[in-house]
Design a protein that fits this description.
The protein is mainly alpha-helical. The protein has a single domain, classed as MFS general substrate transporter like domains (Growth Hormone, Chain: A), CATH 1.20.1250. The chain contains 7 helices and 2 strands; from the N terminus they run αααααααββ. It has a two-stranded antiparallel ribbon. Strand 1 and strand 2 form a beta hairpin. It is elongated and about 60 Å long.
Length: about 180
């Protein structure tokens, strides 16, 4: 209502988000493989959270479109990076279930957050709802920075037995994409 957007302008704002999101699904997967999921999640969440909060500063159709498209860029790497985390942290026999639970979290979170964000928007104004969600994302990123590692072998609380369980049956691929034997731990 604040911007008096036409239906086509609303569609462009929503589409702008998904263009950034879709493009960075692929880029996020590449970056997670190259630099590790911990770093990609950290940067993605910081960008996502900052742009979520910056949505509150939008003052026109164009500013809203730009912020929402960049918001999509920040969120885009999350699904592919989450799959990289599952691949690194779960034994082969548990991966499908772990990916299913992880990917169900997005729609479930959206369904649960809808009424909460709606309440915040009605109580404090739509701008504050974006600022609060952005702040929660930054807090999550700080926790992630101190808790997460790219691989279970690097985490101080993963025992040798748990690490062996995670790595059991795993194949390591060389640059030629041919399976090679993994050295035993």
């Amino acid at each position: 209502k604040s911007f008096e957007l036409t239906p086509s302008e609303k569609g462009m704002v929503f589409s702008g988000f998904f263009v950034g999101y879709a493009a960075f699904n692929f880029i996020g997967g590449y970056l997670a493989d190259r630099y590790g999921p911990k770093r990609v999640f950290l940067y993605a969440m910081c960008i996502w959270s900052a742009l979520c909060a910056l949505t509150a500063t939008a003052f026109s159709f164009w500013s809203l479109l730009i912020v929402r498209a960049l918001f999509g860029v920040g969120e885009g790497p999350v699904p592919t990076t989450a799959n990289k985390v599952v691949n690194n942290w779960f034994p082969i026999r548990e991966r499908a279930r772990a990916v299913g639970i992880n990917q169900a979290g997005g729609p479930l979170g959206g369904a649960l957050a809808g009424p909460v964000i709606g309440f915040l928007a009605l109580s404090l104004g739509w701008q504050w709802s974006f600022v609060i969600v952005g702040a929660i994302g930054v807090l999550w990123a700080v926790a992630w920075k101190f808790i997460a590692t790219d691989n279970p072998a690097d985490h101080p609380k993963v025992s040798a037995a748990e690490l062996a369980d995670i790595q059991e049956g795993r194949e390591v691929f060389s640059h030629t994409d041919q399976p090679v034997d993994r050295p035993s731990l």
